[in-house]
Amino acid sequence: MSLLIVGSIALDNVETPHGNVVHSLGGSAIFTSMVSKNFCKSNIVGIVGEDFPKEHFALLAGNDIDTKDLKVIPGKTFHWSGKYSDYNKAETLDTQLNVFANFDPQLCEDNKNCDYLFLGNIDPVLQLRVLKQMNNAKITACDTMNFWISGSKSKLLEVINNVDILFINEDELRMLTGVHNIFEAAQKAKELNPKLIVVKRGEYGSFAYSDEFIFFAPVYPVRKVVDPTGAGDSFAGGFMGYLASAGNFEETTIKNAMIYGTVTASFNVESFSVDKLKKIGIDDILARKEIIERSIRF
Amino acid sequence: MSLLIVGSIALDNVETPHGNVVHSLGGSAIFTSMVSKNFCKSNIVGIVGEDFPKEHFALLAGNDIDTKDLKVIPGKTFHWSGKYSDYNKAETLDTQLNVFANFDPQLCEDNKNCDYLFLGNIDPVLQLRVLKQMNNAKITACDTMNFWISGSKSKLLEVINNVDILFINEDELRMLTGVHNIFEAAQKAKELNPKLIVVKRGEYGSFAYSDEFIFFAPVYPVRKVVDPTGAGDSFAGGFMGYLASAGNFEETTIKNAMIYGTVTASFNVESFSVDKLKKIGIDDILARKEIIERSIRF
Q1: Distance, in angstroms, between B45 CA and closest chain A CA?
Q2: What would the pLDDT profile of A78-90 be if each residue is shown by its tens digit?
Q3: A203 and B182: CB-CB below 8 Å?
Q4: Nearest alpha carbon to residue A233 among A18, A12, A35, A1
């Protein structure tokens, strides 16, 4: 099965207590695909400027990530600059949309036929446009953020109404639903029509909520969080990648997908950019999965 | 096996978004024993004033909680008044130590011979006095709070050095160790000599940390948290009660104890005071344990 990933592609400046990087590869489509490629054929949809370094194209090609729908246009690549004083919240220092302001995802025929779709955190208007181009996707999922919840709520609700899975962090879930109790809030989100709500809780793990079950995933106990940028995207990459490889949407598959997402996010936060994701493979992922298994099995 | 519980016994005023109670039964020894009594013979050590209502003595007697070392002296019972605006943090409005200021726990011979000991959150000086009176306890545990970490650190470290299990919430663990990463902090606490660190994370669950393993317990998904007062104590009651009933300190036993603590705390927060704890029995506990099992098994 193949997974289509739509999202940002960025050259980021990031500063954390463990150091900093300048113009490093980032963006939701990158973090997601650099994980999902371990599980299934991964295709990205995005836009970059002519400044986008050749080595990054080579990295994607070397990892068999399809870039037929990665447009290169004159101008500069999307740039985000942020700083983490602690690891719970990034302070945005600068955002330059650049060519991303012209992003209008048009899918090639192959990509319209992908079985699985992950809509990274972008404008709900664009997420909807992609959804409408898909021919017959088995499972569709979206992520979002506070900016769209407050600024484009009706369009966002339309997206949520049309996907199978909503990935959302706990603060955003409370903001979206206006409900404080996190389980009541998940129930409210469930009533917006997705089959599954995946609630991300940072250093506390995550849980999946459906009509049939609730499943809590812990975190992998990372001792040195170098840079949390992309944690949610790399979680989604592990989750959606495994789902696409399994080819069904059963309770056991979803629970395993949650654990794979947990593992892949744990690798991501151990380095800046995709430095760690570049180096790991399925064996590393399986090894951590086993450790997590012991940490919750009783 | 028998469990000895040393802690406060209080008449509390509590206000939460779900209502309020006045002079209701509370205190760490109460919340802990009203849970542990489901698993093992439970004995409390504490002090109350002559105003302590007869019905509360009857409640303890009716639940087979031993009160040989519960002193009644002239004066008023310890009183705490607090308010929860959200459920993460209580605001203390008033504390009247009253007879608790004279608490000097002296154990009867029977209690000196208890196999298991839980030292609730009281002055480390008193915790040490109790520890020294125990004849040959199999497993000893303590809880504490920020007040003692900042005000009586050397005495508290002496307590921690002499118990098998430290129960502590995550903020207090960071305060005790000066380390932000929660797993590094648990490791630092482990080096203070206990065999096991149990880190409580409120609505995010808890984890147990030893030299041999780490174990994450989720929360039971409570939809309506009425009053979080005593959550940590009722967790410890389920944990220590099950441990005492199992009679060993093996990995599987500890993991199950974590889940029992999770379940018993979930019942406690669903009502003010011990209203819910009064009504539940081992069958209710086992039913929720099964639900939790499904929520983490994959």
Answers
A1: 32
A2: 999 999 987 678 8
A3: yes
A4: A35
pTM over 0.90: yes
> Considering only A9-23, A80-94, A160-174, B221-235, which range has the smallest mean pLDDT?
A80-94
Q: Which of 3.30.70.120, 1.10.530.10, 3.40.1190.20, 3.90.25.10 would CATH assign to domain A2-9+28-43+64-69+105-296?
A: 3.40.1190.20
The predicted-structure confidence for B209-233, as pLDDT tens digits, reads as follows 999 999 999 999 999 999 999 999 9
Residues B297, A256: Cα–Cα separation, whole Å = 10
Q: Please tell me the distance in Å from A84's CA to the nearest CA on chain B.
A: 14
CA–CA distance, A269 with A227 (Å, rounded to integer): 5
Question: Of B181, B223, B252, which is closest to A298 when you measure between CB atoms?
Answer: B252
Other Cβ atoms closer than 10 A to B80: 21
Residue B298 has pLDDT above 90, yes or no: no
Q: B286 is written with which tokens?
A: 């086992």
Burial class of residue A94 in the structure, from the number of CB atoms within 10 Å of its CB (0-12 exposed, 13-18 middle, 19+ buried): exposed
Interchain proximity A183–B221, CB inside 8 Å: yes
What's the CATH code, domain B2-296?
Answer: 3.40.1190.20
**Phi, psi dihedrals of residue A196, rounded to the nearest 5°:** -145, 135
CB–CB of B215 and A295 under 8 A?
A: yes
User: Residue A17: closest CA among chain B residues belongs to which residue?
Assistant: B180
